[in-house]
Design brief:
The structure holds 2 protein chains of 2 kinds. By secondary structure, chain A is an alpha+beta fold. Chain A has 9 helices and 7 strands. In chain A, helix 3 (147-157) runs antiparallel to helix 5, helix 5 runs antiparallel to helix 7 and helix 5 (175-186) crosses helix 9 (231-251). Chain B is of the alpha+beta class. Chain B has a domain at 265-400: Succinate dehydrogenase/fumarate reductase flavoprotein, catalytic domain (Flavocytochrome C3, Chain A, domain 1, Alpha-Beta Complex). Chain B has 17 helices and 19 strands. A 5-stranded parallel sheet of chain B has the order 5-2-1-9-17. In chain B, strand 6 (189-197) and strand 7 form a beta hairpin. The two termini of chain B are 41 Å apart. Classes of the chains: A alpha+beta, B alpha+beta. The interface between A and B is large, with 81 and 85 residues. FE2/S2 (inorganic) cluster binds next to loops of chain A.
């Protein structure tokens, strides 16, 4: 099939960007969306033009690197699917497709479709871990974990940190991302010890990075390729409130 | 010359304990005076960086992705082995050791593999403490499953995303140290050159992938944990950015490359659908626990799979290997699938596919149980192929997946270049000629959490060479070299696309040095690769400039290294006149088509020394001395 692409091109963070149209010809429906972009890039490069910069690595929906907004939807309309796993069989011959980077203040554009998501790393650095240095761990079966808790932790831990939740949110809120990590670690007995400290530090860092407030529109959950549930946001709100009360109590 | 492999003396089971005692220590207060460069943030690099920083060393960690959390380890699906014997099914350190040695077709070092089996237990403890959400039984205790090449259930897993969860555990430990200021992290930064000062590895030159700037970094030691080289085949299950750059450039600086021809072709991948493909997708080997592999008995059978009655199907793995059946090791299962397809029995549009059928399991345990175990894999299969594997069998075909070969290291994981350590898939150490499923994650974490923290201190305590200044001539020289390579790539301005050149190389290597190899094919490849290289350096198109983001330059620079490395791979395959594990030379097979080893002449590690551009590399042999295990013909029948 043949398609028209309207792609966001921007030389660097300082220069303004604009949409540029490209023709994608002879696209097979078995191609992934990114393979379709590869085809366009290959022809640009053989003509000596610079390729469209976009991020990808695993191309199987797990590393969270790919990050393009397709026709207004982060990773495209297909449910529970990253852009690298989205296949061209979901598009029609002759269609025009708009392709943009994640748009959120805390994720500045580096070039074209590449953005800087280091704010997510800094949030994890602020407290998204269990402080268990190598060496001192007890036998792994010493602390049994009820299966439902282990399953809930895993549901939250599946987050791939791609940032689609932020890109989908009109407030650029990072609540889904942060709450997934807070919940993953918080429901496990090993993570309970640092629970309060963790949620306070991570929420604080999230605010510092300039992510917006959550007004529970649910667009993050809808855009999440791993279907992380909004329930984790409510859980984090409870954890946060409890931690604030406790820390105030401790200070008084 | 090859230095001593430093394998400790004494009985196998106590070598590591004893060695740990014999290793010199660095006093806790002195550790912060030592700086370590770690290239790579996968399981090996992240676990090493975190642990070294916890000990007090100053660490700088580098990766090419935009975040250390995205290293390719994230994609591992099936699980991680450990000799916990939680199932009481007869597992032990010795059995894991034996299975791994045998799985590697008796081409790994006994001492390394035994250490790996011992440490495997600590890894699971460490990961559970970090909050890795392993699968659990209703009792709350850890669940296990079985994996290819073993008859016990010793594989720990987190749904179909074990690598993701283990890597996030290591990434979180690393993030904690970054937050504490103990590790300085450099994402989107690519290794360019290794810097040697007085023969010791003392620094690196890197390129910032956002700004294009080259920079110098000096340290007391350099650790490479840069993963495997599968994309030399172009199509593989690896991430598109995986590369041989750091390992190969270190090789050109003097580090020996060991057993490059030991490459693993994984039996259960989604078949190739067309020339546009950028990668192949693995379907976890765990599927072989409940899926049955078959092809039609008659060639050219065009019926739908469900219309083919039982009696007209060949469950070839069950037939050929009754005791391991569908769980035969990867090299064996891959070759069997290739043979079936070469005999015209393959299925799907290209004829290069075999069925992996879940109908019996769905009947036996019900669709919900199958969904619970493998749901995400079935979903992934449907997303890519548009087919529903609950209703019809999956189609699978082998694809390049893992590389057992890598930089040569001694028992301390140090290469022949003093101060250069190599961890994870980037080294050659533990898997011999074939890696068993669920053992790469184990090795990466063993190296990073539990081996390097001990052995690097010994190097620091035994040498007086310290971190040089980045104004040392050696840095200037290496930086000039890196800059010259970049300028040269940008000045070619030819008209071949980088992808087409990579594709052509990969196709050649796959055909001549893939699942089956022979002398004539390898000689042809060795004659053709220099021509491709020539074509690349004269006619490839790398637009843009050195400054700022340049995707084309990133790709071209990696492909350039594959263009050289491919020749080394084929040379190693040519010289090894035997079949073992993933290295199958059609001239050397048993009557029933199994790999025929030649222990008399080839029971050694082949370590190649770079002799200069366009010169044949020199071969060094490290004899494999087996004291515990008898080398036998592998049998999975
Ligand atoms: C699809 C798939 C499934 C798998 N499933 C399993 C499984 O179930 N069980 C199992 O045991 N094993 C599995 N494996 C194998 C296993 O995942 C890998 O062998 C292992 O994770 C490698 O870890 P590593 O740390 O050595 O390297 P990687 O995780 O590959 O990390 C390499 C690091 O080096 C960095 N790097 C690379 N090149 C450069 C450069 N030039 N400059 C700067 N930085 C660089 C990267 O940024 C990255 O951080 C699987 C592999 C694949 C591909
Ligand atoms: S490239 Fe890894 S998730 Fe898309």
């Amino acid at each position: 099939m043949n398609l028209t692409l309207k792609v966001w091109r921007q030389k660097n963070a300082d220069e303004p960007g604009q949409f540029v149209s490209y023709q994608a010809k002879g696209i097979s429906q078995d191609m992934s969306f990114l393979e379709m972009l590869d085809v366009v890039n290959e022809s640009l490069m053989t003509e000596g033009q610079e390729p469209i910069a976009f991020d990808s690595d695993c191309r199987e929906g797990i590393c969270g690197t790919c990050s393009v907004v397709i026709n207004g939807a982060p990773h495209g309309e297909q449910k529970a699917t990253t852009a690298c796993q989205l296949h061209m069989r979901h598009f029609n011959d002759g269609e025009t497709i708009t392709i943009e980077p994640w748009r959120a203040k805390p994720f500045p554009v580096i070039r074209d479709l590449r953005v800087d998501r280091s704010a997510f790393d800094r949030i994890i650095q602020s407290g998204g871990f269990i402080s268990a240095s190598t060496g001192g761990a007890p036998d792994a079966n010493a602390i049994p974990i009820p299966k439902p808790d282990a399953d809930t932790a895993m549901d939250a831990a599946q987050c791939i940190g791609c940032g689609a939740c932020v890109a989908a949110c009109k407030n650029a809120s990072a609540m889904l991302f942060v709450s997934a990590k807070v919940s993953h670690l918080g429901v496990l007995p090993q993570g309970k010890v640092e629970k309060d400290r963790r949620v306070l530090a991570m929420v604080n860092q999230m605010d510092k990075e300039g992510f917006g407030n959550c007004t529970v529109t649910g667009s993050c959950e809808a855009a999440c390729p791993k279907e992380i549930s909004l329930d984790f946001i409510s859980r984090m709100n409870r954890d946060y409130a409890a931690a604030v009360v406790k820390s105030a109590w401790n200070q008084s | 010359m090859l230095p001593d492999s430093k394998i400790p003396s004494g009985p196998l089971a106590s070598k590591w304990e004893r060695h740990k005692f014999d290793l010199k220590l660095v006093n806790p207060a002195n550790k912060r005076k030592f700086e370590v460069i770690v290239v790579g943030s996968g399981l090996a690099g992240a676990s090493a960086s975190a642990t070294l920083a916890e000990l007090g060393y100053q660490v700088k960690c580098f990766c090419y992705q935009d975040s250390p959390r995205r290293a390719h380890s994230i994609a591992a699906q099936g699980g991680i082995n450990a000799a916990k014997n939680y199932q009481n099914d007869g597992d032990s350190v010795h059995r894991l050791f034996y299975d791994t040695i045998k799985g590697g077709d008796f081409r790994a070092r006994e001492a390394n593999v035994h250490r790996l089996a011992e440490i495997s237990r600590n890894i699971i403890d460490q990961c559970a403490a970090q909050g890795v959400p392993f699968a659990r039984e209703y009792s709350g205790y850890l669940a296990n499953r079985s994996f290819g090449g073993a008859q016990v259930s010793r594989t720990f897993y987190a749904r179909g995303q074990t690598g993701q969860q283990l890597l996030l555990g290591a990434y979180q430990a690393l993030s904690r140290q970054i937050g504490l200021g103990k590790v300085q992290m450099f994402p989107r930064t690519e290794f360019q050159e290794l810097v040697l000062v007085d023969g010791h590895a003392k620094g690196i030159i890197v390129r910032d992938l956002n700004t294009g700037a080259l920079s110098r970094h000096a340290a007391d030691a350099v650790v490479l944990a840069t993963g495997g080289y599968c994309p030399v085949f172009y199509l593989s299950t690896n991430a598109v950015g995986c590369n041989v750059t750091a390992a190969y450039r270190a090789h050109k600086q003097g580090a020996h490359f060991a057993n490059p021809c030991y490459t693993q072709i994984h039996p259960t991948c989604i078949p190739v659908s067309g020339d546009h493909q950028s990668k192949l997708t693995l379907m976890s080997e765990s599927l072989r626990n409940d899926g049955r592999v078959w092809v039609p008995l008659k060639s050219g059978d065009q019926r739908k799979p469900w219309d083919i009655p039982e009696g007209e199907r060949d469950y070839f793995l069950e037939r050929k290997y009754p005791s391991f059946g569908n769980l035969a090791p990867r090299d064996i299962a891959s070759r069997a699938a290739k043979e079936a397809c070469d005999a015209g029995l393959g299925v799907g549009p290209t004829g290069y596919g075999v069925y992996l059928d879940f109908a019996d399991s769905i009947k036996r345990m019900g669709e919900p149980s199958v969904r619970e175990k493998y749901g995400n894999l079935f979903d992934m299969y449907e997303r890519i192929t548009g087919e529903n594997a609950y209703r019809q069998p999956m189609r699978i075909y082998p694809a390049p997946h893992y590389t057992m070969g890598g930089l040569w290291v001694d028992y301390n994981l140090m290469s022949n270049v003093p101060g250069l350590f190599v961890l994870g898939e980037a080294n050659f150490s533990d898997h011999g000629a074939n890696r068993l499923g669920a053992s790469a994650l184990m090795q990466g974490l063993a190296d990073g959490y539990f081996v390097i923290p001990y052995t690097i201190g010994h190097y620091f305590a035994s040498h007086t060479q310290h971190k040089p200044s980045t104004t040392h001539d050696a840095f200037g020289h290496s930086e000039t070299q890196a800059k010259a390579r970049i300028d040269r790539l940008l000045s070619i301005k030819g008209n071949r696309s980088i992808r087409s050149m990579h594709w052509e190389l990969g196709r050649l290597v796959w055909e001549k040095c893939g699942m089956a190899r022979d002398r004539a094919g390898l000689e042809e490849a060795i004659a053709t690769i220099p021509k491709l290289r020539e074509e690349f350096w004269h006619n490839v198109s790398v637009p843009g400039e050195a400054k700022g983001v340049n995707v084309a330059l990133e790709q071209a620079s990696r492909v350039a290294d594959f263009m050289e490395f491919a020749e080394l791979l084929c040379r190693d395959a040519l010289h090894r006149e035997e079949s073992c594990g993933g290295h199958f030379r059609t001239e050397y097979q048993t009557e029933d088509g199994e790999a025929l080893r030649n222990d008399e002449d080839f029971a050694y590690v082949a370590a190649w020394e770079h002799q200069g551009e366009d010169k044949a590399p020199a071969l060094h042999k490290e004899a494999l001395d087996y004291q515990e295990v008898k080398m036998t013909q592998r049998s999975y029948k």
